[in-house]
Amino acid sequence: IVTRRPLVLQLHKIEDGREYAEFLHLPRKKFTDF
Questions:
Q1: What is the pTM of this model?
Q2: Count of CB atoms within 10 A of residue 9's CB?
């Protein structure tokens, strides 16, 4: 991926052990397949 701005990816872990990621420019959209 080539962008003019840096992509900020934030990783989260929920209490039940599941993990998901969110990009700063796409709030509330959860990515679970990474």
A1: 0.63
A2: 11
Radius of gyration of the chain measured on its C-alpha atoms: 11
pLDDT tens digit sequence for 10-34: 999 999 999 999 999 998 999 999 7
Q: Residue ranges per domain, the chain? A: 1-33
Residue 25, C-beta contacts closer than 8 angstroms, at least 6 positions apart: 7, 8
Instruction: Give strand pairing partners of 13.
Output: 19
* Cβ atoms of residues 22 and 31 within 8 Å: yes
